[in-house]
Amino acid sequence: IGAAKLIVVVAIFLLTFYVISQVFEIKMDANLGHIFARSALDAAARSTKPPRYKCGISKACPEKHFAFKMASGAANVVGPKICVEDNILMSGVKNNVGRGINVALVNGKTGEPLDTKFFDMWGGDVAPFIEFLKSIQDGTIVLMGTYDDGATKLNEEARKLIAELGSTSITNLGFRDNWVFCGGKGIKTKSPFEQHIKNNKDTNKYEGWPEVVEMEGCIPQKQD
């Protein structure tokens, strides 16, 4: 009888062990399956998420080029924004923009910011702007964007100095036009980086102002 009891006890123990081991294996398999599935989903999410490039531009710049993105002001409400190499140089958030023409200067060899200023071309004086334009050193990248009105006080001398930086639209810039431009001091050709929308009551997006103009691109590094 004792031997029979022992066999029953051993059989129950083995059966219990078997059942427990099966349950744990199933749970382990399920957990491993969940882990692998989650890893696959994470990998898929990473592969489908678009890469982010400097300043949020749409594609990477080649070597020896500086990424930039900029936007003019929106009416007289939202200021312009200028970004170079992932550095926000001017924006309403930075509180360094103002009515008129906003200007950021960048070292053409290193991409380092040099200066930011704005000049009121509605109620201000064009003379300080002209002096500033004359003081820009050769090899400097110059980025400009309008806010509210950037043209009323512009005179021929100021327009000529900006044209020498590579602008073609500056001669036609009028009252409350929106304009963004990227050129350089000592540039030998006209800049390909310029956008201009005329103030036109029939087509304006905002009452009294045209829509915002945006522009992005890759500025060639200045070579010795």
TrEMBL record:
GO terms for molecular function: carbohydrate binding. Pfam families: ILEI (PF15711). Its main location: secreted. Residues 99-186 form the ILEI/PANDER domain. Keywords: Disulfide bond, Lectin, Secreted, Signal. InterPro entries: FAM3, ILEI/PANDER_dom, ILEI_FAM3C. GO terms for cellular component: extracellular region. It is found in: Secreted. Belongs to the FAM3 family. This is FAM3C protein. The lineage of its organism: Eukaryota, Metazoa, Chordata, Craniata, Vertebrata.
